[in-house]
Design brief:
By secondary structure, this protein is mostly helical. The chain has one domain. The protein contains six helices and four strands. The strands form two sheets. Strands 1-4 form a two-stranded antiparallel sheet.
């Protein structure tokens, strides 16, 4: 979740009211695409394990994965989850929110609280504060550019 963005905008209230929904939706979509391009792949690298504070896997699991597939990458066993997550972007923009749907293997979503197993979806979608700021900055820049294109100049605050 990116959080709240506050801007001082230029544009007439009537013009902005009509355009704001589209501008916000597009700006959030820009932030989601930026996350996908810049940060998603980092979750599947070895350094992602420490960077995003993943729950440690059992020694038995790590040993089996290393023996069978020859790697210790987090969130990856056979490679199907990484391939499916990075295969295509499925964004579903709605007014003031954009949902990024990840088409992952079924086991990714079968998390049971108290089972001791890691919550893989939560680990994959975890954002660091600096990543949130980077996405928000990208979104705000796009929003500012789009708002500057709106005519009927007048200063208002959202």
């Amino acid at each position: 979740m990116i959080g709240q963005i506050t801007l001082t905008l230029q544009g007439g209230p009537r013009v902005l009211k009509r355009a704001m929904s589209r501008i916000i939706r597009d700006s959030l979509e820009v932030a989601a695409i930026y996350w996908y391009d810049k940060f998603l792949a980092k979750h599947f690298r070895r350094e992602g394990f420490q960077r995003y504070h993943y729950k440690p896997r059992t020694k038995k699991y790590v040993k089996r994965k290393m023996r069978k597939y020859g790697h210790a990458d987090p969130l990856v066993f056979t490679g199907e989850s990484r391939q499916r997550a990075q295969q295509f972007i499925d964004l579903r923009p709605v007014a003031r929110r954009v949902t990024h749907v990840l088409h992952l293997p079924k086991h990714f979503y079968q998390y049971h609280v108290g089972s001791g197993a890691p919550d893989k979806v939560a680990e994959l979608t975890r954002l660091l504060p600096r990543e949130v700021r980077a996405c928000a900055k990208k979104s705000a820049a796009h929003m500012s550019t789009e708002i500057s294109k709106v005519s009927d100049q007048e200063v208002i605050r959202i």
